[in-house]
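Journal club prep — side note

Before the paper discussion, L.F. wants everyone to see what a predicted structure for a comparable chain looks like in token form. Sequence:
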Amino acid sequence: MEETSGPIFTISELADELGVTARTIRYYEEVGLIEPIRHEDIAQRLYGVRERGRLKLILRGKRLGFSLTQIKEMIDLYNADPTEREQLQRTIAYGEQRLAEIDELLQDLQVMREEIMDYQNKFVERLKKL
């Protein structure tokens, strides 16, 4: 078994704790975002504290609208640079990009809201004339 410190979790324990399906966790494993502890005598997927932490980061990244590719890159940079400088720079850059996307979406939604309100007012006035 791989060396691990701390508790060990089954896939169902992690799925329950994090509010995702076991299938989601298996998918993250398939695309290389997490890696279960391997042991030839145990067919069950087991995960250590490191993978639990990575899953939390993945889910937070998805909630904030980052792609799995971006999330993987940000997480992998942690292992590549112990100073975390490159990881932080990349995360900031992706965050700025995401904020720009959100600002654009908010502007689009504001225009849409105004257009709906305009039509609604026109329809109310039209209804009053009927």
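L.F.'s comment for the group: The CA atoms of residues 116 and 122 lie 10 Å apart. Keep this in mind when we get to the figures.
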